[in-house]
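Batch job 17 of 40 flagged for manual review because the log was empty.
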Amino acid sequence: MCPDIISRKWLASVVRWGVVLGVILAGSQFMTGMPGSSWSGPLPPLSGEEQLIHDNLKRHVAELAGRIGERNVWRPEALAAAAGYIRKTLEGAGYAVSVQPFPSHGLTVNNLEAVLPGHGAADEIIVAGAHYDSVAGTPGANDNASGVASLLELARLLAGRALPRTVRFVAFANEEAPFFYGDEMGSNVYATRARAQGERIEAMLALETIGYYTGQPGSQWYPFPFSFFYPDTGNFIGFVGDLSSRRLVRRAIGAFRASTAFPSEGVAAPGRMKGVHWSDHWSFWQAGYPAIMVTDTALYRYPHYHAATDTPEKLDYTSLARVTGGLADVIAALASQ
């Protein structure tokens, strides 16, 4: 073969692979590029307010995952006790709690909602939500008493604030299997009803498994291809959305990084990618609302995920307190835009 022909073919191949690499890098940057910078270096001592958050979080998790324990439709008394505790705590923070029943597995189960009314743009709604059921066989300290405890503290921290948009704090039943992705999934019931009523939900944050952090190198892993872009140490909080929620992911993590001394990472990826859709935010995507998951990445970090050993003492309440304080700032920022 003529050397000139070989040279031209080699050059064409280089160009083709260069274009492919460029597209991959551009797509990766689109999914992973986030405003601001993740906190690095030593963390400051907890403030007095953060110490109170810490103590309240620990008390909430001890009640839900300790005294009450496993809570689901196969343990209906425990599920009802968890709902009762959530309601009592929200009422103690000054909210009127709406109990929203729906049938499931031959029982009546309940979503619970507390509302902070907006001032000026009250018909625009921010939802912070967490599921309070646990998978069969586990007390669910991290999955998801951690998310519910944070939800309760967020409601307390924001109580009485005059924000332009309405903020709803919602505890969902039935996130775990076999209800996930189904008609009896509590968040699906809620989001479907909201869409049918024409409600303007501008953002939804699903607080999912947010209580475990470690500075051990190699403690964090990811589904392919995210390991190429994120750290291998599980000391950060993650903000996760699909491509249609990319703007919300960026707004949320930007607000978190602007106010909070704690490591954070974000991604806006195709919703079908492994792990991206694994919580109550999925229900809001189905209803056409922008929604993200806030998570410690669950099974990609936490060794006690969906196990009987997911107990209250496994959680890092100091880190969870920092994250919760930061999320209060995130919700306030979203409710002010």
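Reviewer: the log was empty due to a logging misconfiguration, but the result itself is present. The helical segments are 3-32, 48-68, 76-92, 141-158, 186-196, 246-259, 281-286, 317-334. Unflagging and moving on to job 18.
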